[in-house]
Design a protein that fits this description.
By secondary structure, the chain is of the alpha/beta class. The chain contains 14 helices and 15 strands. The protein folds into two domains: about 240 residues, Thiolase/Chalcone synthase (Peroxisomal Thiolase, Chain A, domain 1, 3-Layer(aba) Sandwich); about 150 residues, Thiolase/Chalcone synthase (Peroxisomal Thiolase, Chain A, domain 1), CATH 3.40.47.10. The protein has a ten-stranded mixed beta sheet, sandwiched between helices. Helix 3 packs across helix 6 and helix 10 crosses helix 11. The protein is globular.
Length: about 425
């Protein structure tokens, strides 16, 4: 399978993370280990560490429109507008019917449903108080559709439900649609509004997989012996993807080139990950990119801070990269928490500047490394300067056994 032709590049991105609302600040905070985790007090649940985003919500859409739409739509509209501006594009640059919008989600609709149930509970559960906006808010394509309405895009839009692998899956979908000629430009990424859902926190708590810490900034501790679970975060990141020749024709800045990808399934368990299949996913992505493990300069891990999940991924990485002494490894969730459907794309965005500065941002909150999570060149607590970062491999894995890997290369003429 030749995934190198036609060539697809990233020319713009917009993001909202718990510690930044633009790439410059996001990168600075990652390099300096500045956490975006705080304590929230969630209705019905109580206090928990979480990643909450702050950004100018009415910069691209009026408050009335935000109120009619969803939190996910609000995040997505902001990031889509910022991505286009970052790419130096307007909608008129491409025929609107030839622009695709592909958005990855872990879940959608639970926040809106919980809010409406709470609302009618104040009126003795009288369904006459149930909003008529509920159905368009909760359909799965809602966040992607809100983006098309805001920007006037008339090409295809849909969301990709791939659990916490969804952000990577959206990039893969965009690359495939561009190579098939279905669209000429794509907006692709992931969104998470999970911090608004009591059910998500309660479920992780019931599983024994919700992180706890006196200092919320220390709650997300991938690879540390004392790690005790996931920090739920909201966030979003959307990319502009184009054909290389189109990008060059307009002298676009190129963040990187999409050169490899893979997805597969564990076919094993609802929640427990499986390192064997994760290793197979990484190998397939490498094969499609025509690369060897030693060609990878940086692996950004999925590790969420759960006991077995981190161990399984470390097993997979050791299996694939044991012969790659110059491959650095890091983790972004330790700083921003787990942004679910947005995790993979946010984490990739935070590492793309490595192509220019050759710095690898650290995994923070590791004071006692779990022996089962030991990896060569695991970057802990302080950034590392590499000789060169030319190829990044990004992992994202999700519940019900879905795995994704994307590989991005520094653009080389």
């Amino acid at each position: 399978m030749d995934t190198l032709s036609p060539r697809i590049v990233i020319t713009g991105l917009g993001l909202v993370a718990p510690n930044a609302d633009n790439l410059t600040d996001f990168r600075h905070n990652l390099l300096h280990g500045i956490s975006g985790i705080q304590e929230i007090d969630l209705r019905y649940f109580g206090k928990a560490p979480a990643g909450i985003c702050t950004f100018p919500e009415t910069k691209h859409r009026k408050k009335k429109e935000n109120n009619r739409g969803t939190r996910a739509g609000c995040l997505g509209v902001y990031c889509a507008h910022e991505a286009l501006a970052d790419a130096g594009l307007t909608i008129s640059t491409y025929e609107p019917s030839l622009i695709g919008v592909y958005i990855g989600l872990t879940e959608h609709g639970t926040v809106e449903t919980e809010n409406e149930i709470y609302n009618i509970s104040q009126y003795n559960y009288d369904v006459n108080y149930w909003t008529h906006h509920h159905n368009p808010r909760t359909v799965l394509n809602n966040p992607a559709g809100e983006i098309t309405m805001s920007l006037g895009i008339t090409g295809p839009h849909y969301t990709i439900g791939a659990a916490c692998a969804a952000g990577n899956a959206s990039l893969i979908q965009a690359v495939q649609m561009l190579r098939l000629g279905e669209v000429e430009m794509a907006l692709a990424g992931g969104i998470s509004e999970s911090t608004g859902s009591f059910g998500i926190f309660a479920s992780f708590k019931a599983q024994g997989a919700l992180a706890e810490a006196e200092d919320p900034r220390m709650a997300c501790r991938p690879f540390d012996l004392s790690r005790n679970g996931i920090v739920v975060s909201e966030g979003a990141c959307i990319y502009v993807l184009e054909h290389l020749d189109k990008a060059l024709a307009r002298n676009a800045r190129i963040y990187g080139e999409m050169i490899g990808y893979a997805m597969n399934s564990d076919a094993r368990d609802f929640v427990l990950p499986y390192g064997v299949r994760q290793a197979e996913c990484m190998r397939l992505a490498l094969r499609r990119a025509n690369l060897q493990p030693e060609d990878i300069d940086l692996v950004n891990t999925h590790a969420t801070g759960t006991k077995q999940g981190d161990i399984e991924e470390c097993k997979a990485i050791r299996e694939v990269f044991s012969g790659s002494p110059k491959t650095y490894i890091n983790n972004t969730k330790s700083i921003i928490g787990h942004a679910m459907g947005a995790a993979g794309v946010l984490e990739l965005a935070g590492n793309l500047p490595s192509f220019n500065d050759n710095l690898v941002h650290p995994t923070i909150n590791v004071t006692d490394l779990d022996p089962e999570c030991r990896l060569d060149n695991l970057v802990l607590n302080e950034p590392v300067e590499a000789d060169a970062i030319n190829v990044i491999l990004n992992n994202s894995f999700g519940m019900v056994g879905i795995n994704s890997t994307v590989i991005v290369k520094k653009y080389d003429e």
